[in-house]
């Protein structure tokens, strides 16, 4: 048994998603067939399906600082403050040198760069004298985490973890590691995305033949459905307050769960296509590192983006690891909110954590015509399942072949 | 001819769009802007940029101190608005 100072627990959750701006709103949508996907107009793209967040950007920062910063920074500040309030930590009494901010991002800087280039060509006749002095602080890769430190006057380390769509999990993993290394006492860790503000991501998915669209936006992405039609780009964020169990106990903190295991590896096989074997290895290693067996896992939350190869290859991997596990249920989140990119892993984990207390496994958004290659015995489809959940495994994968797995146990 | 009062109004419009959380209607003309508003060096660069964008007025770096107060802004910018 590990000592309490070698065990990392979640004591606060702050999020904004296309389907709610706190955990209870988000969970309600997952349990009750909600949808966060709408049609919106994107520069050069016209009308597309997207998952947009509607949180109050100036709830925790001034209007001036919002204007100076980025959408990613605003999402990060909102989520971090919500997580802090949820944690119940008396932040005035915390040594800010011992607080770290570790946020996963798929990309950063595209939004600001596109805007500046747009104005350079369309407003300023290619005169770079009008290029904003805000461009560099807005586009440096640490921007979202840095804005959190400025907002909360945190003087410990901050940086982002660039990990494509595996980034949400990797942000949390980084927080866990820094706590275990005793570099910090409190970690704000998770993932965020502002990707819906950049036309380039939509255009690239469209060029790849992977951009989801439907006249009913709620059906624009249908992971695991034979009629799946691709990815819906979403924005959002989920930031967790992580602490060592010893510290959480000493202040009688509410504990959402313990991070009992994780793993990350690389496919080393393709820029965009997933690799079943590496996914299997990643899940198996995470389970092994957690000191459990696959049949102890109650929920496997799939990455499942709604592309044929992504869905089918991941289903093969899940079946290879959990196919014989009668007690393990499978769900996926993106049918409800789209693909929140760097926030996906962290948000999708958050959506499942209430299972520890409400006793349900949230379903996949109703899959009308299940792809036979995605058929799995315990796939939770359309209707929630009552179950005593003790362990959640969260899959998150990304381009360039990056895989990340988290395992959370009820405390 | 752009009057000093009109110059003041144009500067005030720019400041209002930058100091978004401050009440700019009570600015005292002979008191440093920094002493009465939440402005930092990035904000003064914004003022310089907006003068260039909205009014095609260039403020060279060596003249930035001339933007310290509303009074010095008007004194410095009036000839540029009327050039």
Explained architecture:
The complex is a heterodimer of chains A (411) and B (83). Helices cover 33% and strands 22% of the residues of chain A. Chain A has 14 helices and 15 strands. Chain A has a 10-stranded mixed beta sheet, with helices on both faces. Chain A has a 3-stranded mixed beta sheet with strand order 2-3-7, with helices on one face. Chain A has a two-stranded antiparallel ribbon with strand order 12-13. In chain A, α7 crosses α13 (344-352) and α10 crosses α11 (308-322). The longest helix of chain A is centred in the first third of the chain and has 17 residues, at 71-87. Chain B has helices at residues 4-18, 33-36, 41-55, 70-81. The N and C termini of chain B lie close together (9 Å). The mean pLDDT of chain B is 97. Chain A binds chain B through residues 62-64, 67-68, 129-130, 132-134, and chain B through 18-21, 38, 42-43, 45, 49, 52-53.
Give the arrangement of secondary structure elements.
The complex is a heterodimer of chains A (411) and B (83).
Chain A: E1 8-16, H1 23-31, E2 37-42, E3 46-51, H2 63-68, H3 71-87, E4 99-105, H4 110-122, H5 135-139, H6 143-152, E5 158-162, H7 167-180, E6 186-193, H8 199-207, E7 233-234, E8 236-244, H9 245-250, E9 257-266, H10 276-290, E10 299-302, H11 308-322, E11 329-332, H12 334-337, H13 344-352, H14 355-358, E12 360-361, E13 385-386, E14 391-398, E15 402-409
Helix pairs in contact in A: 3-6, 7-13, 10-11
Chain B: H1 4-18, H2 33-36, H3 41-55, H4 70-81
